[in-house]
Amino acid sequence: MAVTVPIILGIATNHLEIGLALCFGAFWCSPSDVSGSLKHKQIGILFSALLVVVISFITSYLDISNYLFFPILGILTFSIAFISIYGFRASLISFSGLLALVLSFAHTLENLEVYEYALLIGIGGLWYLVLSTLLFYVNPKAQTEETLNETFFITADFLDTRRQLIGEQPNRESLQTQLMNLQSELTEHHETLREILISSRKSSGKSNYHSRRLLVFVQLVELLETAIANPVNYHKMDTLFEVHPEFKTDFQKLISEFSRQLRAIAQNMNNSKQFPSNTLLSKAFKGLETDILKLKNENHLEDYEYYLMLQNFLDYQKKQFEKLKKIKWLLGNPDLTSDDFIKNEKLKRFIVSQDYNPKLLLRNLSFRSTIFKHSLRLAVAVMLGYGIGLFFDFQNPYWIILTIIVIMRPSYGLTKTRSKDRIIGTLIGAALASGLVFLISNPYVYGALGVLSLVIAFSMVQKNYKASATFITLSVIFIYAILQPDVLKVIQFRVLDTLIGAAISFMAMRWLLPAWSFMEIGDTIKDSLKANAAFFKSISTYYETKGNVPTSLKVNRKEAFLQTSNLSSAFQRMAQEPESKQNHIDDIYELVVINHSFLASLASLSTYVQNQRTTEASAEFKLVSDKINDNLNKVCVQLKAINFESLEINTSTFNPKPFVFPNNHNRLRTDTISQIESEQIQKEAHLVGEQLYWLFSLSEKMLKLTYKFNV
């Protein structure tokens, strides 16, 4: 709408150049229109509009055929790309500026002055802002519903993968990798929902709709925490399910039903009458309770321990059921009382403000900064691409640099993937367009197909870049088919320019100031470890003091999930890089898995202590907690000294200081079970003891692994 309306009006009023200027302004500002609060979207679009006005004004005065233009092109490219240091939305504003820089070469002014053209570009950006704001007010719930819907589906996929991990699995490693990727995706969606729901509530006040959706979101976050919780480590559960395979099947069926119901809720979010009944889950729980009770044998320690393990695991599933029922209730549009609302002072602690201090620019003017190296690399690649286009007298040399700015990303793996997808998509689009231009010769049909292809391309750019590249190619060719009769020549140059742009992007990423992941992975591991340590301290403190669950515990939980997600993404980038640059990848993968296992154990402990009435923390609990914290601090110290660029490892054996784990950390380790203590206390002793032992074991493993690198 923002692109086509100005062009149609321009043609109708015989002022096509004005229509094109407005169209360009709207088009260049569109990338910054992403999910988030309305205020942040508006500020992003306004900054994009300001940037494209400045860029259009500068480039209109430049002689692009002059070779002195190259250093100016490089400086402009570097400066615009460097804006990305201010976060994700800033990177999209930067992309808008780069689009304006490149595509300004495609349009020569005939009837407009430079300042008129630049102002019209800005008005086009404002037109897009007005349209975006208007559509938001027409359907203010759209982005909330869409993001929430996607979160439901990803949570269902997460539960389904978690179900497959129950019991011994031949492909456990691949399932754990899949689980980590889904957890990262979920964490990103949670961050988006926090911004949408909390920021919109702060700006527009409390509304029943937003409060309900916020409470649904809270249940989804807690559902994720409970989903990764495990009453003991995987090996003990594997042994249990090997001895009693019927429980493995029953639990898998139960979790599968949770997953199915979440998908059903997502599909009928605004029609609670279509939600699946709770009856099936209630029956499954009753059946499991009866079967687990048969296992109870207080005179046989092993059977009784199995019984407690299954009971604790069942308790986690009951918590999931409660959250699922609450989600259904909240989506059924109940009238909430003031007691149901979450206070704003608590909410604002979950939103981290982006640092926009100008000093950040100076701090990143260093080869240690990934964005600095990317900006420099992009500037050189753009100059090289444009030089090749001029030297060989290509029809549209700016297509080469357009390909470069679209493909090149700070990470090698993503650049490589986008290069491949861009080439394949362009070839498919060119082949389809070649066939269609032989069958169709009507310019109005070309125009309609061009606009339709553009809409499809934009809608798929985040989900399937290969398909998006196909439709972008179709759109460009159809638009050029209206303007130029020799459309096959256009297709030929389009393919050639894409191949050259993709090749330059790949080579620049591979050999020009490369930023390999192993250079930064140590800091990412340390950040994740620190977040897990803070989460553990919050849990320990709450277990010792009891009372109301402090907001700080939930904030630390959010940070632990976020940093663990960042670690997974960093490792994923490393795994996509050349094998020669994957230094110590097996050991780093083990550290990543241990971090995830540590978080899973923390989630188990956190879920239990928040939802059960617990006894006074024992001296042994405090002793072991202090030891775990001490181990984590030592790992952080060792990580600071590690140079992952070095291929050397420590060949000497690691000998940690002797620490005798308390024998009575789990009261079931006695020969007979005390009849005085209640079953609830026994369950608590078993779960807390097992988790402490598992956390201690994981912290020791991390110490041994990081010791290998201290040479």
TL;DR of this structure?
By secondary structure, the protein is mainly α. The chain has 26 helices and no strands.
Output the keywords.
single chain, 711 residues, mainly alpha, Methane Monooxygenase Hydroxylase, Chain G, domain 1, 3 domains, globular
General description of the model:
- By secondary structure, the protein is mostly helical.
- It has three domains: 4-137 and 393-511, no CATH class; 140-345, Methane Monooxygenase Hydroxylase, Chain G, domain 1, CATH 1.20.58; 517-709, Methane Monooxygenase Hydroxylase, Chain G, domain 1.
- It is built from 26 helices and no strands.
- Helix 7 packs antiparallel against helix 8 (172-204) and helix 22 (521-545) runs antiparallel to helix 25.
- It is globular.
- The model is unreliable at 665-676 (pLDDT under 50).
